[in-house]
UniProtKB/TrEMBL annotation:
Name of this protein: Transporter
Lineage, broadest ranks: Bacteria, Pseudomonadati, Bacteroidota, Cytophagia, Cytophagales
Entry similarity comment: Belongs to the sodium:neurotransmitter symporter (SNF) (TC 2.A.22) family.
Any one Pfam family match given in the protein's UniProt record, by short name: SNF
Transmembrane segments: 12-34, 46-69, 90-120, 140-160, 172-192, 212-237, 249-273, 301-330, 342-360, 380-403, 434-457
SUPFAM superfamilies linked to this entry: SNF-like
Source organism per UniProt: Algoriphagus hitonicola
Protein keywords: Membrane, Symport, Transmembrane, Transmembrane helix, Transport
Broad class of where this protein is predominantly found: membrane
Membrane topology: Multi-pass membrane protein
């Protein structure tokens, strides 16, 4: 498909493959390869994986259909999508929240991505790095964060088909090749069977309310629903494209990367560090895995490859995070892409500094403490992650389900899904409507009530 010649006109994806790769890239990120393994370790291994898969199919996938349909029907960014489909100022606040989430998460997510850039080099030249010392060294972390944001800016400057689509078509296959190679090496290590059993053999007695909530929160985080990313990418999708089929591919690729992420971590962990607690938390990937790689033949190469994989996964997500506020400024403020991308990108660099500094003990940004909806928050990074990366995302999912399911005629969005997908009728159509109107809102409301402590001690997703 030809791309609009005027850079101020709205770009489109050149192919369904380009859309699938870009949208899957926005879903596949550190949430799959960094966050998913450590949450699995903290929540009972195979039991968490089992619940997570159910949450993806029954909750996250219907919400994914919902966001892409809203985006393509309107042809606009999250704010414009709600406005142009008849939403009043109240509902448009959901779109505003999407733009804010993408900007603020982009700023602190890039700090983690900067760590991966640093670890690529330390693995290649075989310098042992203490994770706690590394993250408390701003003269390393802040420049690495800026470099990562700059790379994201340069890709988004290329536009949808010229930058985002081309980058995704290259990076997603590379990501899969690297992750399959490392997972293959991990599962063939002597003693890996114990890790595979822990990871893939669910102990159903470990399933409780906390595990369900963590799995649902991870499904939202991993599938990129509630961010406005899929509304924005859907707005670049031609009418003839099959949203149902594309969404299935996106969900399948995202889930496959998450499952392979676990296969990289747990077999190697159990084989090479027997007795090591798999619930090492967020430091699992950065603290434990380099020691695992050191014990592998060619460990430096595999370690560098792994952190390159993490960086690529982060980049496929930050491209779409930057694109959401950029799309808003192009659509609604009539800025050109160059101006919008640079201003948002530089703003994210500035906002990333407090997040980077909040890992330094004794620093002002590390000492910030307050309570948000009954949840104790510590540190600037922690505040950003809970408020924008967790709570706001869940609220957006609820608001979008209520908007399309109740505030508007849901049949209009079902008709949008049916365009290019003639099989979307009968029980499939009715089932999706039922889930968006009833199942998703009820589950999300229960999740929010639990997060704010209605059912006892607050439990973050």
């Amino acid at each position: 498909m030809a791309v609009n010649a005027n850079p101020d006109d709205r770009d489109q994806f050149g192919s369904s493959l380009g859309f699938i790769m870009a949208a899957a890239g926005s879903a596949v990120g550190l949430g799959n390869i960094w966050r998913f393994p450590y949450l699995t370790g903290e929540n009972g291994g195979g039991a968490f994986v089992f619940v997570y898969l159910i949450c993806v199919v029954l909750i996250a996938l219907p919400l994914l259909f919902n966001e892409i349909a809203l985006g393509r029907k309107s042809g606009k960014n999250p704010i414009g999508a709600i406005r142009d489909t008849g939403g009043n100022k109240f509902w448009q606040l959901t779109g505003v929240l999407c733009v804010m989430v993408c900007f603020f998460v982009f700023s602190y997510y890039s700090v983690i991505a900067g760590w991966t850039v640093g670890y690529i080099f330390t693995e290649i030249i075989n310098i042992p790095v203490d994770f706690e010392v590394f993250v408390e060294t701003p003269e390393y972390v802040i420049p690495l964060t800026f470099v990562f944001i700059l790379v994201t800016i340069l890709i988004v400057l290329g536009g949808v088909s010229g930058g985002i689509e081309k980058a995704a078509k290259f990076m997603m296959p590379v990501l899969f090749i690297i992750i399959i190679f490392i997972a293959g090496r991990s599962v063939t290590l002597e003693g890996a069977e114990a890790g595979i059993q822990y990871y893939l053999n669910p102990d159903f007695s470990k399933i409780n309310g906390t595990v369900v909530l963590q799995a649902l929160g991870q499904a939202f985080f991993s599938m990129s629903v509630g961010w406005g990313l899929m509304i924005t990418f859907g707005s670049y999708l031609p009418k003839r494209s099959n949203i149902i089929q594309s969404s299935g591919w996106i969900a399948g690729m995202d889930t496959a990367v998450a499952l392979l992420g676990g296969l990289m971590v747990f077999p190697a962990l159990f084989a090479l560090l027997p007795g090591k607690d798999p619930s090492a938390g967020p430091a699992l990937v950065f603290d434990v895995l380099p020691r695992v790689f050191d014990q592998m033949p060619g460990g430096n190469f595999i370690g560098a490859l792994f952190f390159l994989l993490l960086m690529v996964a982060a980049l496929t997500s930050t491209i779409s995070m930057l694109e959401v506020p950029v799309a808003y400024l192009i659509d609604d403020r009539k800025w050109n892409r160059k101006k919008a991308t640079w201003i948002v990108g530089i703003g994210a660099m500035i906002m990333s500094v407090p997040s980077a500094l909040s890992n330094i003990e004794g620093n002002f940004f590390a000492e910030i403490e307050f309570t948000f909806l009954s949840n104790p928050i510590r540190g600037f990074f922690g505040a950003m992650d809970f408020i924008f990366g967790t709570f706001a995302v869940i609220v957006i999912c609820l608001m979008l389900a209520l908007y399309t399911g109740w505030a508007r005629k849901i049949s209009d969005f079902a008709d949008e899904l049916a365009l290019g997908a003639p099989g979307f009728k009968g029980p499939f159509r009715s089932g999706w409507i039922f889930f968006i109107r009833w199942v998703c809102p009820i589950v999300i409301i229960l999740l929010i009530l639990n997060m704010v402590g209605i059912f006892g001690a607050p439990q973050a997703a």
